[in-house]
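FIELD: query
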Amino acid sequence: MDIRPTSLPPAASQRPPFPGRRLPFPGDEVGAAAVGAAPDAAPETVVYTDGSCLGNPGPGGWAWAVPDGPYASGCAASSTNQRMEVTAVLEALRTVPGPLLVVSDSSYVVNCFRDRWWQGWLRRGWRNAQGRPVANRDLWEPLLELALHGGRQVRFEWVKGHAGDPMNERVDQLATEAALRQRPAQGRRWPAGAPGS
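FIELD: result
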């Protein structure tokens, strides 16, 4: 499996969202926290994600990790915590194949899918409920494309951050180290001891 972090796409404000594809809207058969294709025969992979930002805005880091499996992190010289949280999920979906359960401590990410914020954004032309442009649209567009139309089921689950969940703590550590060191890390299996070593 190629687990190299990918670069982020340029801002997509000049093109319509998801050309040629119809997005599900209320009444369509989409679970509250499960989106995308119907479950297929492949087993579901659990992937934990997290983002970190020193100063918010400031140096940022993102990370994802599969329990007893691959992991990756990346960084940005100047970012926000929300951008790093979304980027972590985007990079996980770009890299980890098959049906996924994304576990995140970001209510920003999980609520977008659980509460279907994205449906309102699209109905209003990428404006939020207050009529302002949706923040981080350049990240949300490719994330929605992968989560909703990637040909697989993607589910989201919220976990309380800094509450003792071992995998949540690991991705937090990876994301924080990426933000501090401004250096990405990756591997096929989490090493004993420090991540990224």
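FIELD: remark
Helices lie at 81-95, 107-114, 117-123, 137-149, 166-181.
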